[in-house]
């Protein structure tokens, strides 16, 4: 009986082109499973690699230290943290790092609307998602600054709202200034050392 019900759902999704999922489907995933949703299409998330986690932890430390030291009004929230980016039930992402400067976007479920600054750390399984799908989504929804941190290429690609069509690429060997914080610089070469 369960098999028939699952099969019917699979057929429904096939007819919809795999784009009939909603945030209710995300919320119904078994414990430990994570996925993102872009225009009704669900993308399962793999467990991150060690280099991903090392960079993530160091970024969190540096950014959070800067915000606290400067008594900033923005809040850093790392994955897993839900962003209901289009304020609908067909789009849901979990950026590696979300920096939100408008407290009214936050509730117990997550962020409703675009974060001010999003950082995605590229994994082998997330390359196309981070470089293509999320770049378009973040531009469309008004993310002020989007960083793609690519450990394999040792590059950081930065998109900013006022010049989204002209991303700036930096090598890990460069000291990189954060756009939303004029006095915050990040040194990625330090992040990849053990």
Description:
The chain is an alpha+beta fold. It has a single domain, classed as tt1808, chain A. It is 30% helix and 26% strand. It is built from five helices and 13 strands. It has helices at residues 2-15, 23-27, 50-69, 127-141, 188-191; strands at 35-38, 41-44, 75-78, 83-84, 97-100, 106-107, 110-112, 117-121, 145-150, 155-160, 168-171, 175-177, 185-187. It has a six-stranded mixed beta sheet with strand order 3-5-8-9-10-11, with helices on both faces. A three-stranded mixed beta sheet has the order 4-7-6, with no helix packed on it. β6 (106-107) and β7 (110-112) form a beta hairpin. The chain is globular, with a radius of gyration of 18 Å. Mean pLDDT is 87; it is low at 1-17.
Main β-sheet, spatial strand arrangement? 3-5-8-9-10-11
- Based on the structure given, which CATH architecture is correct? Alpha-Beta Complex
- Helix amount: 25-40%
| Overall CATH class | Alpha Beta
Indicate the low-confidence ranges by residue numbers. Answer: 1-17
Number of helices: 5
List the helices and strands and how they pair.
Elements: H1 2-15, H2 23-27, E1 35-38, E2 41-44, H3 50-69, E3 75-78, E4 83-84, E5 97-100, E6 106-107, E7 110-112, E8 117-121, H4 127-141, E9 145-150, E10 155-160, E11 168-171, E12 175-177, E13 185-187, H5 188-191
Parallel strand pairs: 4-7, 8-9
Antiparallel strand pairs: 1-2, 3-5, 5-8, 6-7, 9-10, 10-11, 12-13
